[in-house]
Design goal:
single chain, alpha/beta, Carbamate kinase, globular
């Protein structure tokens, strides 16, 4: 087993729901503090870390049409929710001594830097954690797609997709007791089997650019570090399985 990280630069994808803890809405500071400490532990190993956070704990754009709201308006509200989450995680990271920059796809200079690719890469090189907020700044695109796109743009070596379950299963493990988890699966099979780990646009983008994805359980303390150290956790999605 390697004693040093196998990745130099990663993109960590967190769901907004991960920040809720046991609450039904919003951000639990205790949870963001725990996540920040895990990120700090990985950062201290010399790994450069970019992060994309969803906004589902505050507002989910996809639910807007069902409530009679226009999809574009709902998506814009969802993007702003990711900014709130990004600021919350930035606060927790800086409390544990990790310099962090929130970079927004929607310009709001008072609270976040505008997204400029070369500047974001420079932040990573200077050992700052970079949190990409507001998706890609356009409606109809999920934060999964934003994670895939930003990973390509900053030349991350892998996407770490943090979830509530241990990996990718052939059925919902919460509903199906004997669901089987994949140790490894191809991007094409994820799309072909209709597995809902990330949306099809994000998976297709990763497939075209040969970007591996590790899907793992964020609720297990230390899993982010295990992933970057090359330990066998979760499900690995790559070009061929």
């Amino acid at each position: 087993m390697t004693t040093s990280p196998i990745y130099k630069r990663i993109l960590l994808k967190l769901s907004g729901e991960a920040l809720m803890g046991r609450q039904s809405f919003g951000v639990d500071p205790q949870v963001t503090g725990q996540i920040a400490q895990e990120i700090k532990d990985v950062h201290s190993l010399g790994v450069e870390i970019a992060i994309v956070i969803g906004g589902g704990n505050i507002f989910r754009g996809l639910s807007a049409p069902a409530q009679g709201m226009e999809r574009v308006s709902g998506d814009l509200m969802g993007m702003l929710a990711t900014v709130i989450n990004s600021i919350a995680l930035q606060d927790s990271l800086e409390k544990v001594g990790v310099f962090t920059r929130v970079v927004s796809a929607i310009e709001m200079r008072e609270v976040a830097e505008p997204f400029i690719r070369r500047r974001a890469i420079r932040h990573l090189e200077k050992r700052r954690v970079v949190i990409f907020a507001a998706g890609i700044g356009n409606p109809y695109f999920s934060t999964d797609t934003a994670a895939a796109l930003r990973a390509m743009e900053v030349k991350a070596e892998v996407i770490l997709k943090a979830t509530k379950v241990d990996g990718i299963y052939d059925a919902d493990p919460i509903k199906v007791k004997n669901a089987t988890m994949f140790d490894e699966i191809s991007h094409l099979d994820v799309i072909g089997k209709g597995l809902k780990v990330m949306d099809a646009t994000a998976i297709s983008l990763c497939m075209e650019n040969q970007m591996p994805i590790i899907v793992f359980n964020l609720l297990r303390t230390g899993n982010i570090q295990r992933a970057v150290m090359g330990e066998s956790i979760g499900t690995v999605v790559k070009g061929s399985a």
